[in-house]
């Protein structure tokens, strides 16, 4: 099972980025998928999750209204559209596939993780 995240980079505050995560080796369309992030010196935190069909999503309060998670099951891909970026969004972003079909915020229920992509927002 492999997850390949991409799309990170350096952007000015107020800008946008779109992260992508492509999965292989598993029926990803059957499971929820999530995005997490870890800033330097901090613990990993939940960002967003989408259920198996794309019909249900949940967001951390800190990104609600600015970030949008979506998925294309035909491409085994999950996206994270990030708008109105702030300096506090700077982190390594990880995608992960859950062991459940329904959305879950607990990282303990995500057995497979991508390698992470760095997002840096300059103020």
Residue-averaged pLDDT, rounded?
A: 95
Principal-axes shape call: globular
Classification by helices and strands? mainly beta
How many strands?
Answer: 11
Unreliable sequence segments: none
Structural description of this entry:
- The protein is an all-beta fold.
- 0% of the residues lie in helices and 48% in strands.
- The chain has no helices and eleven strands.
- The strands form two sheets. Strands 2, 4, 5, 6, 9, 10 and 11 form a seven-stranded mixed β-sheet that branches. A four-stranded antiparallel β-sheet has the order 1-3-8-7, with no helix packed on it.
- A hairpin with a 6-residue loop joins strand 5 (45-50) and strand 6 (57-59).
- It is globular.
- The mean pLDDT is 95.
